[in-house]
Amino acid sequence: MPSDGQTQSSGRARDEKAETRKKARLALPTTEKEGPQKSHSVEGGTKNPSMYAFLTEGYKTHDVPTKKSGPHEQGPFPPLYSHIIAAVTRLNATQPLRPFVAYAQPSRLSFIQARRAASSAALYSRAAGPSPAHSPRAVSGVHGKAAVSLAARGLSASALTRAAAAPRGAPAAAAKDSVAPAVADATGSVGSGERLLQPDASLALDQQSVGKLLTVWMVYQACGSTKLVQMAPKILKLFEKLRLSWLSNAVVRRTFFAWFCAGEKEREIVHAMRRLKESGIGSILDFSAEADLPEDATTAGGDLAEAARAHANVKADAFAKEYFHGMHMASQVPHAFAALKITGLADPEVLYRLSMPHQPLRDAFLAADHDNDGRVDYTQFKDTVLPAMPGGARVASPSGMFSMVDANGDGQVDWVDIQMALGMDNPLARPLYLSDGGAYGALESDFEDYERMVARARAVVQQAAEKGVRVMIDAEHTYFQPMIDHVALVMQREFNTGGSSQTLVYNTYQMYRTDALQRMTDDYERGVREGWRFAAKMVRGAYMELERGRAASLGYASPINPTLEATHALYDRGAAQLLDRIATAQREGAVPPALFVATHNNESIERVLQQLQSLQIDTSAEPVMFGQLLGMQDATSYALAKANIPIYKYVPYGTLDEVMPYLIRRAQENSAVAGAIRSEAAQVMAEIRRRMLGRTRRAHSVATSSL
Q: Angle, nearest 10°, between helix axes 302-330 and 444-467?
């Protein structure tokens, strides 16, 4: 028999091996397939911490990594980022923000941005501006070769060739001309011939027990009561005030939560995804916790502000860790998606301040474009566009700034040029966002938090790429959306390269917004110029009442379409535009853009199906997919699955407290389409009666299979 010492020694060895395997399984992969990572120390510390180690080993002082998580390698930081490194070094020596320095990674510039940056110098005056730690003077004299060398790592050679060869005409006008016939067909009425989509409730209801059907019927009945849905938030708050939350939570958990969510634990979540997969339906796993501006937001200063900032970063770290867990769960079911909410990766107030200049800048550009050709010249840029930015007054060389935006030097710039050159991922443009002391604009600390947010997003997407999971970046409130779109575009530029197999990141467009189609068109054009595959998920939108109420209370124009019919028309036009481009790319043998049609509107689905047929689009590689929410429009979802058309369900999960805002929105969305919800409730009750009476069901053919 082994001695006690031998037994203890072997036990320790087993424990050490188990711990090593656990860390190897959970740690994020490096960007190199072979060999150790290189590290460059900043004031000492642990070298090259992985994201998992950072989140699980407690708060330690880490180095600033010099390798990017992404498909392209990034060497030691060139002088272009010296001011950021200085800020990170200063931050590393302060409290209470030491734990977050590992996220402070400079963002990668595109080739076009770096080429512009290399040609510009002395853009800002020395009389006014940010503190020395963020001053652009540190980067204004950077050598051009360093900037271009850095950018060359951001895009492949083929992508650069495509970007250089792309025509630079006005994108909006060209898009309208190219899709005019398809748009006209899409906005008209669906043909009177045989419909391709024939939803069959029995396909979905067969999957449920009688007990579950009774629960579903009660949920639909509750959703059909508009007054009850409107009062739901107040009722829940009243129960909380009376300390009866346990009762209201029990009711919600057994009804709305049980139908619209997959669960709280990994085992039940993965089981729900596998059941869908057995029926031919894919999953989009969605951690449904949401973040918003606090209702009682106040401006704090000093230690209080630093403490609040530290708390926000701790919370963002926790969200990032949960997203890693979500990627792990999604990878257990083939070809799954996972949703990503950018508001979970940063302080919502930081997102709000950084998003604030977008609309004034857009309005100024439209005002400067007197002839409506989609372009402005230097004088219009200097006199109208530049002053719209919070830091526009501190630009000492407007001509240098214009040269940075005007990539081809023709003396004209369009909106896509401005977005590409003056984005937050260009350090030379960041002082334009800096507040002059008022409420309009960003704080200096926001730039550091921006770097952490992008690094968190990059790490999550990299984890998804390694596990074979695709990512959908959710759209949220309009006052956050400019920065959400920005992060989505940065991720698409880094990960949506290399052909159709590399389409990892989808951005979401809410078509109830008046500017939705223009934004989608501009982003597509940006993908053409920068050489990455555009991928869009189209939804109608989920925050209509909030957006309209906020616009009315603050006195600005509502960003939402005035009527439901206008939203339907814009949705169908956007789908037709992308379908036309997909068909053109397939005919030419090129990589097409990707479209995810997320809607519960059967008329829109029917139009898309008819266009897929008329344009002869091949859906085998999933350039076009459909999606609905778990627990909604199941008859449509199962009919599409039976017809072998790519169909996915949004599968929310989380604790009841975390998903409560999501559940309230689902109830509100259902009550807004009372006719449809009454129809679904009637179908459920008919199925219950059929089973109770022992009747047989007539066979139902699904005409969609003809596709």
A: 10
287 forms beta bridges with 653
Q: What is the pLDDT of residue 17?
A: 56
pLDDT digit string, tens, across residues 522-581: 999 999 999 999 999 999 988 888 899 889 999 999 999 999 999 999 999 999 999 999
Counting Cα atoms < 13 Å in the Cβ hemisphere of 407 gives 22
d(CA 564, CA 633): 19
Q: Is 438 helix (H, G, I), strand (E, B) or coil?
A: coil
Is residue 21 packed enough to be buried (19+ CB in 10 Å), middle (13-18) or exposed (0-12)? Answer: exposed
Q: How many helices (DSSP H) and strands (DSSP E) are in the chain?
A: 30, 10
166 pLDDT more than 70: no
Q: How far is the C-alpha of 354 from the C-alpha of 424, rounded, in Å?
A: 8
Would you list the DSSP string of 323-378? HHHHHHHHTTSTT-EEEE-GGGGS-HHHHHHHHTTHHHHHHHHHHH-TT-SSEE-H
Q: Which residues fall within 8 angstroms of residue 485, CB to CB, at 6 or more apart?
A: 507, 519, 523
| Residue 595, token pair as written in the block | 């479209």
What tokens appear for 6 in the block? 């031998």
Kindly tell me if the per-residue pLDDT of 296 is higher than 70: no
Element (H, E) at 506: strand 505-510
* Whether the bond into 233 is cis, omega within 30 of 0: no
C-alpha to C-alpha distance for 182 and 416, rounded to whole angstroms:
24
Structure tokens at 228: 């009850």
Exposure string for 347-356, b = 16+ CB within 10 A, e = fewer: bbbbbbbbbb
CB of 460 closer than 8 Å to CB of 323: yes
- At 396, list the tokens: 């000492």
Q: Can you tell me which residue has the tokens 């898009």? A: 175
- 536: helix, coil or strand? strand
Which tens digit of pLDDT belongs to each residue from 604-638? 999 999 999 999 999 988 999 999 999 888 889 99
Closest to 659 measured CA to CA, from 289, 118, 244? 289
Looking only at the bridges linking them, the beta strands covering 337-340 and 470-473 are: parallel
- Angle between helix axes 157-165 and 111-118 (nearest 10 degrees) is 70
Half-sphere exposure (Cβ direction) of 676: Cα atoms closer than 13 Å: 16
Residue in the block written with tokens 């189209």: 538
Residue 315 tokens read as 């919370």
Q: d(Cα 631, Cα 259) in Å, to the nearest integer?
A: 6
Per-residue confidence (pLDDT) for residue 96, from 0 to 100: 37
State CA 553 to chain mean position distance.
28
For residues 700 and 199, is the Cβ–Cβ distance under 8 A?
no
Whole-prediction pTM: 0.74
Q: Is 509 helix (H, G, I), strand (E, B) or coil?
A: strand
**582 and 592 Cβ atoms separated by less than 8 Å:** yes
Rounded CA separation 125/136 (Å): 10
Token pair of 102, please? 């590992």
pLDDT at 168: 39
C-alpha–C-alpha distance, residues 88 and 552, integer Å: 41
With beta carbons less than 8 A apart as the criterion, state whether 475 and 536 touch. no
